[in-house]
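Narrative summary of target 7.
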Amino acid sequence: SKYAKKEIYDKTKNGLYFIGFLAYLFLIGQLIVWYQLISIGYYATSNVANSFFYLFTTIHGLHLVGGIYFWGKTTSKFIEKSLKKDDINNLIDTCATYWHFLLAVWIVLFGLMLST
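Modeled conformation, tokenized:
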């Protein structure tokens, strides 16, 4: 968003694309991990720890899908230049806040899963 405020179009666009790429990459990685766990017999019904793992990662995945949706809306409005400068800056700031919150939540959950 610092680039958006300075009206550096290319860096803002590249930043938005990079964040989208990382979000999709993370979601695909999460699905791959689930597939690997299921293929070796770690089902959600196997034990309580597995159930919590699948529950937490599902909730996180749903938040991620929601973030991807709003990232897409933000990116398309930025590319189309359909909003005033201040409005798009606010939209980008809100999107960034959401993604930082998800990162913090994931770090906490990952730490909890590692410690059990």
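The two ends are 37 Å apart (CA to CA).
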